[in-house]
Amino acid sequence: MDPIVVILFVAIVALTLVITYYAAKQTKSTGDFYTAGGGLTGWQNGLAIAGDYLSAASFLGIAGAIALNGFDGFFYSIGFLIAYLVVLLLVAEPLRNLGKYTLADMINSRFDAKKVRGAAALSTITIVLFYMIAQLVGAGALIQLLFDIPYWVAVLIVGVMMTIYVLFGGMIATSWVQIVKAVLLMAGMVIVSFMVLWKFNFNIGAMFTEVKQATSHGENFLNPGIKYTNPLGTISLMLALVLGTAGLPHILMRFFTVKDAKTARSSVITATWTIGIFYILIVFLGFGAALYVGESEILAANPGGNMAAPLLAEAIGGNILFAFISAVAFATILAVVAGLVLSGASAFAHDIYGEIIKKGKATERQQMLAARYAALGVSVFSIVLSLGAQYLNVAFLVSLAFCIAASANLPVILYTVYWKRFNTNGAIWALLTGLFSALILVSMSPSVFSPVEGAALFVGNPIFPLDNPALVSVPLGFLAGYLGTVFSKEYDFQRYAEVKVRANTGYRG
Amino acid sequence: MAQPKLSEENKKADVDFEKVLESSQFKKLMQNKKKFIVPLTIFFLIFYFLLPISTSYGTFLNKPFIGDITWAWVYAISQFIMVWTICTIYVKKASSFDKEADDIINDQIGKGGSA
Q1: What stretch or stretches form a coiled coil here (chain B) (predicted)?
Q2: Which chain A residues are Cβ-neighbours of B9 within 8 angstroms?
Q3: Of A19, A127, A255, B84, whose CB count within 10 A is highest?
């Protein structure tokens, strides 16, 4: 292994451990552990959101997808970004005004119903596990390639690191790891895309002309339609992406780390600028990889295209840049999985243990202990699952997580804040229908069944035609919330008035 | 920093939220928010979905814009510009909502609230 790679790798591990050490000293209460005491500033939280959101799937996956599929690789970027308008305009501020630690807290500001809390915790845990397995399996394969170490060692390294951050440093450590990662990632993106553009004297038109001749797709490389040939499938995927972000538990949790709705708003703005710039620069990385690494070499390193960005760094910047980009990819993985562990742990320890089992009467000490045990449990469980899943094609789990978030969580969030008549029954129906319709439809989809061996989990013909079922499951989630509500007589106007006033004024007395 | 608690706080009985909800001041805030957020949300969702719909069911976006840069790319990039523009407009507008919300807390609920 290249010594520069080792040095940068160790530097990142050391830096994050120092952060964790200081964070651990500041973590004194459950509030510190789950939400950093609500004390982050807007730009800090904005960068942390970007750090939490821009996963290895975004950085390496989309760079690779653009390098291999041209325009179609860019679809993901657009969906991932526009999703922040849903967060900004409809979700962030009421969420901050109503919630405490988790999504279930926010929904229960209207209901005080254990069943609703349980259903919300169930959907949170499902989303977190799917997202996490996709991240860890991807991380294992990637670190194996980057640093030339066995898969299981790679998964264990990432797994142990994320456990340390969360277990000792809670949200404070997690946030700062995410902030550092966001800065490193953006620096890496700017450097590489600057070097690619330099080669064309910053003439983007010339770059388009050249890339058109560089790949086996020819002119089609610049046009939509190489990867996404099924119109309804494309629209369904785009629906999951744009509505899913506003229901992802690890993103929602970030809004509890700031003091009020105004700061929540300014953090979305910082995040949106950062994420937007990132997704524009990623086009230059994708084109650069198509030009200077070449299709066949990208595919030879990894059939999913995940090595396109690091290989491009090597091609234009030599060993040092390769080592830097690899280290950035490593930091990216760590920051995302740490955020996931924390949101999974909060659903177990705060929602299920603290509020359902202990009925909100657990002592501070018990809550803290439960949070740490839950973090450990979530980590170990997902590490074990990921070790078993090495040879499975699990990339679709990320878009499935977005789909569940859009079908189960988003309807309930929107109804809670905006619909007067909404009640307990409707919340449970929406959560369970959204969750299970997404799961059942995916289990019959081409992501799980493919006639080509190795292309999906099982060999066989899919019953349901769309890879991502959002087009069906999102309307089902909203419909179930509506029907569940009107079929039940329960209606509490007083509670609605309280939630509406609090959500819109930020009154907390 | 202490996390302010929600409904479990016993102070809640002091505030008549129904009265606040029915007040003309609060209704006006809701109306202003609605007038701003609903059309904007409908607009950005339509603008967003028109891209995959037009690339899936037609090829007219494959026509060149300048040189080899096609309209599909221009449309895609315009989505980024739209996001940043809406963000900027919203932040400006939201500060007036903040002011209205503060007024409601001060006039109707009394001290103890934080914006």
Answers
A1: none
A2: 508-509
A3: A127
